Amino acid sequence: MDATRILAIRHGETAWNVDTRIQGHMDIALNAVGLRQAAHLGHALAQSEAIDAVYASDLSRAYTTACAIAQAMGQSVTSHTGLRERHFGQFQGRTFAEIEAELPEHALHWRKRTPEWTPPGGGESLTMLRERILNTVDELAARHPGQQIVMVAHGGVMDILYRAATRLDLQAPRTWQLTNTAVNRLLWTPQGLSLVGWGDTSHLDARGQDETSA
């Protein structure tokens, strides 16, 4: 089977990114900077890439970003709940400082990236997240052998994709960026993912703020 080329892209900026507030499955819209980032990204990709399909998380910050890309390229967007951010349970809506103060034992598990730990209140473990994301990528990429597709999702999703493509375990320290609307290039075959390029932000201006935690 021919490889599928994937442009994996984190959504544009939100107000909660600026506040370092955990979004998870909460449906937070893009802010003005995020909308501008998405528009610049769509214009840049339309000038340089051929895209056969655009997929996105159904959460509006990712879906709106994907719509800007699709509109610029004459495509439509297919949403998929499998591309959602990690569910952070009771952590959603809080900052890490608040979690450290209120739930210090859980905050330690998060900082240590304990693979099987789940945030209280129905959250996903890293192991559960990895299984969901990689199953979704397998499903979508298998539809497009020899083609190039866009997947717009979230910081936690980008982190899993980088680890899978570079064969890093879930607890390895993060040394790569998860910048809003950065273009990350992957190849998919039934044997797995490989990394082509990471963190291209050449389309961005210098005005957008960004937080790099998942």
The radius of gyration computed from the alpha-carbon positions, rounded to a whole number of angstroms, is 16 Å
The SS-based structural class is alpha/beta
The largest sheet has its strands arranged as 3-2-4-1-5-6
Topology pattern, helix = H, strand = E? EHHEHEHHHEHEE
For the biggest sheet, the summary is: 6 strands, mixed
CATH topology: Rossmann fold
Q: What is the general shape?
A: globular
CATH architecture: 3-Layer(aba) Sandwich
Explain how this protein is built.
This protein is of the alpha/beta class. The chain has a single domain (4-200), classed as Rossmann fold (3-Layer(aba) Sandwich), CATH 3.40.50.1240. It is built from 7 helices and 6 strands; from the N terminus they run βααβαβαααβαββ. Helix 2 runs parallel beside helix 3, helix 4 packs across helix 5 (104-112) and helix 6 packs across helix 7 (155-166). Mean pLDDT is 94; it is low at 206-214.
Layout: helices, strands, pairs:
Layout lengths: L3 E7 L4 H4 L13 H17 L4 E4 L3 H14 L3 E3 L16 H7 L1 H9 L13 H16 L6 E6 L1 H12 L16 E7 L2 E9 L14
Parallel strand pairs: 1-4, 2-3, 2-4
Antiparallel strand pairs: 1-5, 5-6
Provide key terms for this protein.
single chain, 214 residues, alpha/beta, Rossmann fold, 6-stranded mixed sheet, 7 helices, 6 strands, 37% helix, globular, disordered C terminus
